[in-house]
Structures are given as structure tokens and as C-alpha cells.
Design a protein that fits this description.
The chain is α/β, with parallel strands linked by helices and about 220 residues long. It contains eight helices and eleven strands. The protein is globular.
């Protein structure tokens, strides 16, 4: 029998790509084309890009490159990603998980800009939470904790009372740096030290008590 971990919180902060939505297909296609054009190894590039804003990934991969070039390239890549919804599907259990949060304070905290987030969530048949922190909302990309701290502030909940759901190294680092517990979703998360890790959202059950305490049964 699989062991169950129980976490408590007052609000949940949810990454999108790899956590609620499986968008690996278009992400791989767009970024591997970019890697080839830069003469970079595609696998090495893919090990960096998940969870970060595009220009931040480019800066990590090409540290001597002017940021203006990174921003220009990222704008082009975002347009390509926004046009490519082939294979974008919900992470297993995603629809049921979001439905279970109707009475639970929660926010989307994603490195994607709002337009891409809306398109991917729609393609996966998932509702976009009314509270959302997107690329336009922050000055620093994950692994900086700014996005999660802003998500907590948006919900009016102390950071220590939030639980983050994430799949990537950058996102897990950001959540932990914000002083939050982190539920790692999917195989990418396992190696990066989340508080607890599960394969998908079918392994998460959520309940909320009358006093506002949110209980997560994970595993």
C-alpha cells in the first residue's frame, strides 16, 4: 500500500505546465528548434527551460548574449507556442482536482504570459483560476520566489500557510524559497527535493474545514 502524506494549508498555489497541463509536446518542438538554431544540445536545453520564463532560460544557456536578443527570441517562441496546441492535455486528475478547489483559496502561478496560459488551459479543457500570477505580473522568473509570494498576497494568506504544486526544478526551488511546502507533480519533480512527490493529480485529495483549514491527502 502506498503511504499517504497529509499536509495542511490555508491556500494553494498552482503552477500550470507539467502540473495542471501536459504541454511537453509543443514545448519540446519549439525549444528544440531554437536549440538547433543556436548550435546547442537539445537535451541540455530541455533540462533548463521547464518552469522559467523564456528569456531567463536563454540567459542561463547563453550567459554572454545580450538580453535584448533573448527578449526578441522569447517573443517569437511565445508566438509559436501559442499557435501550437497539438498534444496539450490535462495532467491526469487535473479536472477533478480543480473542481475540488471550489471552496479553497487558490491561484495560478505560472511563468507563461496570460495569453499562453489561457490558450493552454482551454486546450486542456480546464478553467483558469480567477486569481492568477503570470509572466506579466512579476519582475523575476522562477526560481525567484516573487511569483509565489505575490500569489499568497493576492489571496491574503501568509506564505507559510500556502502549499505549492509544481513539476520543475525552478518552480520547486521558488516555492521552497518562498517558505512554502511543495507538492511535486510528475517524474521531473522527484529529483528536486519537494516536500512530497506524486506521479499525477489523481493522487491528491483536498478538503476544507469550517475554520478554513485545507487538508491535503497525498499519495
Amino acid at each position: 500500500m502506498t503511504a499517504t502524506t497529509v499536509l495542511t494549508a490555508r491556500a494553494l498555489l498552482l503552477d500550470m505546465d507539467g502540473t495542471l497541463v501536459n504541454s511537453d509536446g509543443p514545448t519540446e518542438r519549439v525549444w528544440r528548434r531554437w536549440a538547433a538554431a543556436q548550435g546547442l544540445d537539445g537535451d541540455a536545453v530541455m533540462s533548463v527551460v521547464h518552469g522559467r520564463q523564456g528569456q531567463a532560460s536563454m540567459a542561463a544557456l547563453l550567459p554572454d548574449r545580450p538580453m535584448e536578443e533573448n527578449h526578441r527570441d522569447n517573443a517569437r517562441l511565445l508566438a509559436e507556442e501559442s499557435a501550437d496546441m497539438d498534444g496539450v492535455v490535462p495532467v491526469a486528475g487535473g479536472a477533478e482536482f480543480l473542481a475540488s478547489l471550489a471552496a479553497v483559496p487558490h491561484a495560478l502561478v505560472t511563468s507563461a504570459p496570460l495569453r499562453l496560459a489561457e490558450r493552454r488551459m482551454s486546450a486542456a479543457g480546464l478553467p483558469v483560476p480567477s486569481a492568477r500570477i503570470t509572466a506579466e505580473s512579476v519582475g523575476a522568473s522562477k526560481p525567484d520566489p516573487e511569483g509565489f509570494l505575490k500569489g499568497a498576497a493576492e489571496l491574503g494568506v501568509p506564505a507559510a500557510d500556502c502549499v505549492v504544486f509544481e513539476d520543475s526544478e525552478a518552480g520547486i526551488r521558488a516555492g521552497l524559497a518562498a517558505g512554502m511546502q511543495v507538492v511535486g507533480i510528475g517524474p521531473r519533480a522527484r529529483a528536486h527535493g519537494p516536500t512530497v512527490q506524486v506521479d499525477d493529480l489523481t493522487r491528491v485529495r483536498v478538503s476544507r474545514a469550517d475554520d478554513g483549514t485545507v487538508t491535503l491527502h497525498i499519495g
